[in-house]
Write a structure and sequence with these properties.
This is Small integral membrane protein 31. It comes from Ilyodon furcidens. Keywords: Membrane, Transmembrane, Transmembrane helix. The chain is mostly helical. Helices cover 73% and strands 0% of the residues.
Length: 66
């Protein structure tokens, strides 16, 4: 009975399997970055409000409607 693949082909098949296994294992074992907390979300919203306020002030100084 013949082997369905040559040694060269088997090398690539095994290599692909090992790489796939490593990536799968890494995706399970590596912890994702922490999700932003509510405080960080509040700070971001507060910063956006300050930016909008500053933009309105600049638009008023230039004589434009915001």
């Amino acid at each position: 009975m013949e082997v369905p693949f040559s040694a060269f082909e088997l090398t690539f098949i095994i290599l692909a399997f090992v790489i796939f296994s490593l990536f799968s294992l890494a995706s399970v074992c590596i912890r994702p970055e922490e999700a932003p907390t509510e405080e960080a979300a509040y700070e971001g919203k507060k910063f956006q409000q300050q930016v909008k306020k500053k933009q309105r002030e600049i638009a008023k100084q230039a004589g434009q409607e915001p």
